[in-house]
Amino acid sequence: MLRMHTLADLITPTRFGQLPAAFYSPTPPTPLPGPQLVNWNAELAQALGLAAAGDDPALAEYLVGNRLATDAQPLASVYCGHQFGVYVSQLGDGRAILIGDACDVQGTLHEIQLKGAGQTPYSRRGDGRAVLRSSIREYLCSEAMHGLGIPTTRALGIAGSPERIWRETVETAAVVARVAPTFVRFGHFEYFFYQGEHELLRTLADWTINHFYPDCHGADNAYLALLDHVIARTATLIAQWQAVGFCHGVMNTDNMSILGLTLDYGPFGFMDGFDAGHICNHSDDSGRYAYNQQPQIALWNLHCLAQALLPLLPDRDAAITALHRFQPLFEAAFAEQLRRKLGFAVWQESDWTLVTELFELMHASRTDWTHFWRTLGEAGASTTLRDLFVDRAAFDGWLAQYQQRVAQEGGDDAQRRTAMQQANPRYVLRNHLAEIAIRAAERGEFGEVDRLLVCLRHPYDEQPEYADYAALPPDWATSLSVSCSS
C-alpha cells in the first residue's frame, strides 16, 4: 500500500537551492497568527502522495509557513524584468518563498512555493503578504486552467489568517501553496545578462537545460536550442489562451515562465462579451496587455529573453532567425485550436476568412465568448445562436457559410458535435463566479470555493448540478474590475 505523506515529511531540499548564492537569498517565512485552512486540493495532493487534509492537524500551520519541514530550504530568488515595457533592474520573489521540492507518485519533482508568506529581500517596500481575495483568485484560476488542459502552475492549498492587510481597503491575509516544475522566468535570465554576470547566465541556462530540456544537449548550440524550445512553448500557450478567451492582464517579462506555463495570476480575466481589445486590468491604461495584443507581447517578451541569451548564442542573426519562427508557430497552434472549436477535420487557409468574419460579428455584438462556442457545437442551436447577435441577418449569412464548409467535409454530425464539446468548455472561471466565492470566504464560508473547484476540474463535461456556473453573467458583473493588486 502506498504510504501517504504529510507536508512535513514530503519536502526535500530544492534543486534551485543548489545554484550559486547569487541566485537567491535564504528567507524564512514570517509567521501568521491563527491560520485556518480555506481549501485543500485533494486531487493534486493525491498526485503528490499527500495525506488527506483531515489526517494532518498541523496542515494550516505548514501552508502559511509557521512550521517548516525538516528538509525545507526556504529561499527567495532574484530576477529583473520589463514591466509594462520599462526595464526594472531588480525585482525578485517579493512575497513568494520557495520552501523545497516534492516528488510526486510518478517520480517527478516539483517546487513548492508559499505565496504571501512574508517579506523577502526583494519586497521593494511591500509587506510580502497576499490577501484572501487575490489568493482565492489564483487558487481557482490555476486549477481552472489545468482543467482546460492549458499549461500552468498549480495550487495545492490555501490558508487564511485574521491578520489585517492594507490594499485598496483593509483585507485579511492568506497564503497559497503553489506547485510547478520550476518558477524560473524570463526575468531570471535578464537579471544576469544586465548585471554582466555572463558565467552565471550560463550556469542558469545549463541548469534549465539539464533539468527541463535535456535534448538541447544534442544540438549544435544548446542555448539556441533552448531559445527555440521556449519560443515554441510560448507560441502554443498563447494560442491556448486566445482560444478560451483568457486575458493574463500583466504580461511582464518577469511573469513569463521559461517552461511555457501560465504564471502569476493577478488581474486576469476570461472574457464574457467578446471585445477584441478587451483590457482585463484596470491598471493597464494604454491597453498594452489587451486580448488582441497578447500574441505580439509574447513575441516582444521573447525578444527580451533572446537579448539576455545573446552572450551564449552563436550571433545575433541566429537569435533573430529563431524569433521569426514565433509567428508561424503561433498561427499554426491557433489554427489548430480553431479547427477543433469549429469542428473541422482539416484546417484550410480559407478558414481564416471565415474566422475573421465571425470575430467581427462577435465583436460588434459583444457576443458571449464561452456561450457562443459551446452552443455552436450543439444540435439545433441556430435559433439560439441568432439571439446572440445584433445583426441577425449578417450572422445568418455567416452561419450558412459555416454549414456549407462543414458539409464539404462530410462525416458524422454526432461525432463532430462530441468533438466540439471537448474543444469548447461549458465552464470557465468568470470574474463574477470568483467574486461570489470570495465574498462568501470573507464571511468565513469556504464551501463555494470548493464547489467551484470541483466543477472547474471538468470544464468540458455537462454537469447539470453546476448549471448556474454556465449561465450568462448577471448585469452587476460588468461593474467588476481587477488591477495589479488583485
TrEMBL record:
Catalysed reaction, written as an equation: L-seryl-[protein] + UTP = O-(5'-uridylyl)-L-seryl-[protein] + diphosphate; L-seryl-[protein] + ATP = 3-O-(5'-adenylyl)-L-seryl-[protein] + diphosphate; L-tyrosyl-[protein] + UTP = O-(5'-uridylyl)-L-tyrosyl-[protein] + diphosphate; L-tyrosyl-[protein] + ATP = O-(5'-adenylyl)-L-tyrosyl-[protein] + diphosphate
Molecular function via GO: AMPylase activity; ATP binding; magnesium ion binding; manganese ion binding
Protein's name in the database: Protein nucleotidyltransferase YdiU
Organism, as annotated: Andreprevotia lacus DSM 23236
EC code: 2.7.7.-, 2.7.7.108
InterPro entries: SelO
Domain of life (superkingdom): Bacteria
Pfam families noted in UniProt: SelO
Binding residues annotated for ATP, in chain numbering: 92, 94-95, 115, 127-128, 178, 185, 264
Job of this protein: Nucleotidyltransferase involved in the post-translational modification of proteins. It can catalyze the addition of adenosine monophosphate (AMP) or uridine monophosphate (UMP) to a protein, resulting in modifications known as AMPylation and UMPylation.
HAMAP family xrefs: SelO (MF_00692)
Cofactor: Mg(2+); Mn(2+)
Keyword Oxidoreductase listed: no
Family, similarity comment: Belongs to the SELO family.
Keywords: ATP-binding, Magnesium, Manganese, Metal-binding, Nucleotide-binding, Nucleotidyltransferase, Transferase
Positions annotated as active site in the UniProt record: 254 (proton acceptor)
